[in-house]
């Protein structure tokens, strides 16, 4: 190793330790919130660091178990069992590998930002509602409505020690991130808060409920199994998981690129690496993985320069799992619940809501959010995408129609896109024109299709049969001009009043 390389090695080494300290409590908390064995989160963190770190196309992105998949994984564990969920993760990984090999990663970026931001916000709401019960000493319920319905009962049976630990941890998280995170960037607030919550739990007279850890984490792997589940149900689950995990990873890669000036992300390679990571993680009994912006931003802020920092963070996680996992048994569940509540609240981003509203897509955001929270993740995304498409079609169906008197003629101007979507509007407005006039039709448009051409022709024939006269540009010529313009050939000058 040359002297020139030494600073890079040292920076990657320091950054890897910071990322490990950030990832450790998050991996444990996400496993608990997913209804999975605690070791599943640790395995996923190891695989996300080492496997995806070695193969990935976004060198400074750090992968592992993600809060954005918590709700989906929890549903799969409840429906299929954890072993089958691991099999779903393997199948989702295969789909991602195929998608990356086919070089279609950019296609996942076509989803409306309003849908994706609302999906994350809905997941944040679900995490928060479920973990509030753990914060008060109970357990999460089966749905958002059930969490809301059972909240009074949970409050009336509050475990005081759990509440003290949880409230203290949560206060430390908010306080540290607001007051000290920028001053002491190398110490993660999540680690400080969990350590303080654990110490407080040990000092209280009545010990709060703690995390359950198997005696030998490495010997307790759960191997994938289909069980008695329907293959069609598992296939649909794998497709859904591959879609959501891919979108989250690719968006994280794009966001990570904005945080540094190094090599840009190669999205197809990153998608392939995410698939490989999910295959290995699922095969070893780990949670599904994605790129995680919290770990990636911590990596960059701590000075990470190459993929080595992500790989080393996975190595440190493996060392911890092998030799120090027993310490996890001292962590109160309420402390992890506080960490997850903090994560859930941060997934609801008010600036993103304002941005969505500014672009006129708040309705898409709102229905997606409500669908995710009160139906399920897939229905929420589907409803949001459907509404986004409806609004897009509505925009393409709008046509500006103006008329004025010019020297005894009635001058009509159509502006916009003349497509089959705008035919009903065009037909209705043209039908309002008084009979027997000389009409000059001006077309200031960027798009026309066969349906619009035929609609205008039909109106002209009928109007002239009734004694009127229409002066307009030949529509076939206009269509050819627009087509030539789109293909790159020079379009001839347009005369909007040719007879």
Name some characteristics of this structure.
499 residues, alpha/beta, Transcription Regulator spoIIAA, 2 domains, two-stranded antiparallel ribbon, 6 strands, elongated, disordered C terminus
Compact summary:
This protein has helices spanning 6-33, 38-55, 70-80, 82-101, 113-135, 144-156, 160-180, 189-203, 231-257, 267-283, 293-301, 308-323, 333-347, 350-358, 362-374, 377-397, 423-431, 450-465, 475-487, and strands at residues 63-64, 290-291, 399-406, 409-418, 438-448, 469-471.
How would you summarize the topology of this molecule?
Layout: H1 6-33, H2 38-55, E1 63-64, H3 70-80, H4 82-101, H5 113-135, H6 144-156, H7 160-180, H8 189-203, H9 231-257, H10 267-283, E2 290-291, H11 293-301, H12 308-323, H13 333-347, H14 350-358, H15 362-374, H16 377-397, E3 399-406, E4 409-418, H17 423-431, E5 438-448, H18 450-465, E6 469-471, H19 475-487
Parallel strand pairs: 4-5, 5-6
Antiparallel strand pairs: 1-2, 3-4
Helix pairs in contact: 1-2, 1-8, 1-11, 1-12, 1-13, 2-10, 2-12, 3-4, 4-9, 4-10, 5-6, 5-13, 5-15, 5-16, 7-8, 7-13, 8-13, 9-10, 9-11, 15-16, 17-18
């Amino acid at each position: 190793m040359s002297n020139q390389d030494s600073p890079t090695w040292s920076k990657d080494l320091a950054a890897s330790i910071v990322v490990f300290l950030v990832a450790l409590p998050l991996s444990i908390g996400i496993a608990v919130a997913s209804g999975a064995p605690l070791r599943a989160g640790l395995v996923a963190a190891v695989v996300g660091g080492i496997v995806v770190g070695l193969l990935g196309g976004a060198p400074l992105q750090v992968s592992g178990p993600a809060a954005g998949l918590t709700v989906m994984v929890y549903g799969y564990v409840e429906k299929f069992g954890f072993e089958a969920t691991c099999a779903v993760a393997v199948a989702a990984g295969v789909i991602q590998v195929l998608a990356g090999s086919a070089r279609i990663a950019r296609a996942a970026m076509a989803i409306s930002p309003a849908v994706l931001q609302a999906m994350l916000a809905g997941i944040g709401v679900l995490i928060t509602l479920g973990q509030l019960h753990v914060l008060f000493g109970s357990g999460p319920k089966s749905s958002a409505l059930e969490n809301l319905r059972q909240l009074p009962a949970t409050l009336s049976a509050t475990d005081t020690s759990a509440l003290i630990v949880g409230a203290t941890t949560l206060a430390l998280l908010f306080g540290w991130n607001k007051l000290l995170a920028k001053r002491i960037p190398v110490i993660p607030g999540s680690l400080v808060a969990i350590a303080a919550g654990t110490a407080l739990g040990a000092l209280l007279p009545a010990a709060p409920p703690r995390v359950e850890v198997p005696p030998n984490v490495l010997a307790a792997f759960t191997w994938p199994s289909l069980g008695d589940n329907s293959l069609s149900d598992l296939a649909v689950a794998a497709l859904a998981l591959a879609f959501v995990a891919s979108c989250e990873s690719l968006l994280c890669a794009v966001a990570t690129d904005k945080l540094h000036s190094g090599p840009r992300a190669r999205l197809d390679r990153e998608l392939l690496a995410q698939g490989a990571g999910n295959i290995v993680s699922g095969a070893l009994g780990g949670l599904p993985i994605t790129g995680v912006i919290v770990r990636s931003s911590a990596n960059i802020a701590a000075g990470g320069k190459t993929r080595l920092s992500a790989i080393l963070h996975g190595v440190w996680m493996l060392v911890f799992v092998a030799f120090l996992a027993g310490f996890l048994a001292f962590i109160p569940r309420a402390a992890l619940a506080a960490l997850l509540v903090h994560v859930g609240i941060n997934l609801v981003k008010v600036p993103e809501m304002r941005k969505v509203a500014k672009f006129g897509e708040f309705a898409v955001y709102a229905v997606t959010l409500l669908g995710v929270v009160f139906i399920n993740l897939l229905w929420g995304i589907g409803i949001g995408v459907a509404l986004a498409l409806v609004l897009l079609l509505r925009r393409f169906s709008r046509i500006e129609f103006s008329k004025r008197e010019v020297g005894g003629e009635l001058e009509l101007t159509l502006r916009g896109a003349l497509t089959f979507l705008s035919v009903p509007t065009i037909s209705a407005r043209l039908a309002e024109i008084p009979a027997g006039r000389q009409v000059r039709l001006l077309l200031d448009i960027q798009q026309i299709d066969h349906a619009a051409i035929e609609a205008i022709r039909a109106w002209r024939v009928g109007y002239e049969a009734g004694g009127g006269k229409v002066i307009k540009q030949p529509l076939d010529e206009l269509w050819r001009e627009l087509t030539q313009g789109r293909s790159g050939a020079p379009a001839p000058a347009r005369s909007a009043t040719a007879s």
